Amino acid sequence: MTAEAQKKLSECGVGDDVRGRFVLLWPRRVKGGVLYFWLADDSGRMRARYSGNLSPQNGTVVEVAGKVVDVWGSLWVEVAHMTVAEQVDTQQFVRKGQFDIAETEQQFRRLVESVSGILRRLLDSFFEDKSFWEAFRRAPAAKSVHQAYEGGLLLHTVGVARLCCAACDVYPRLRRDLLLTGALLHDVGKVWEYELFPRLDKTEAGRLVGHVVLGAQEVSRRARQLGVPPNTRLLLEHLILSHHGRKEWGSPVEPAFAEAELLHHADMIDSRVAIYFESGGSGWRYSDTLQRYIIVGESK
Questions:
Q1: Taking 90 as the threshold, does the pLDDT of residue 4 lie above it?
Q2: 78 with 219, same domain?
Q3: In terms of CB atoms within 10 Å, which of 99, 233, 253, 258 comes out highest?
């Protein structure tokens, strides 16, 4: 069976054959010689065990033949044969979002183009940088909670920015260009916080510093280079540092002016709504993030 035709792990049930290429994660060989690990594709992951002699390293792409079995109520892959894959395209193992990325890119560009002056120059310093743009458009918005897939950061940023634009129509006293610039840049630190392969996870910089501070540092650096007025630069730094809203939620400071308060709530709204849209299935589901039961899908 080819990699393109193989059955996704998320579609497998007890008794199904599992054949194809997968990423091997967290291998651990125990007494008795059995190798325990996880197999992952772009749909999810499943526990696995293997009694052979091959001992691939974490993150290795392997060719597997096996069968799904029930082990104490959990689905496992009983691997019969396993080899290290050659000529690997790692992109096939990266989870993709179910949205029109071309249309989302166009929406993003229109939002950037609506900003003028020195703040537009600051935005262009990020998004006209081809290397940065490629990393930004591919980055996930989170590790698991919302938009946790390639392109998720782009989708989330557009959602937040559009909410901020709508708020400016309701509250005309808001400084639109300042708020929109903050919205478009609020999560740029996630470019350095996450990696997509061998699995979506935090980088060393993501674990040690985090995207809030990483983003504020980079915005401050580029703003200084461009000569953004010190007071405007300070406001932008605050927008990014305070967008999680509370210190216990990861913000070093809490919102201190109207645009910062609005950005925090727009960020929260977009991420919370995504939980409902991306939970899968339909009917009542318990959300670990929201810590309550919610209705997802088409159920009334």
A1: no
A2: no
A3: 233
What pLDDT score does 51 carry?
93
Structure tokens at 32: 């008795």
At residue 1, does pLDDT exceed 60? no
CA distance 177 to 168: 10
CB atoms near residue 153 (< 10 Å)? 25
Global pTM? 0.80
The answer as to whether 187 is a domain residue is yes
Which helix or strand (DSSP H or E) is residue 134 part of? helix 130-138
Within a domain: residue 286?
A: no
Give the count of domains, the chain: 2
What's the confidence (pLDDT) of residue 162? 98
290 inside domain: no
Task: Give CA 243 to chain center in angstroms.
Answer: 17
Q: What is the 3-state secondary structure (H, E, C) of 238-265?
A: HHHHCCCCCHHHCCCCCCCCHHHHHHHH
Are 150 and 269 part of one and the same domain?
A: yes
Angstrom distance (rounded) from CA 46 to CA 36: 11
39 and 125 both lie in a single domain: no
Domain containing 247: what range?
Answer: 94-275
Tell me what pLDDT residue 2 has: 46
Burial label for 288, CB within 10 Å (0-12, 13-18, 19+), is: exposed
Question: Is 149 found in the same domain as 237?
Answer: yes
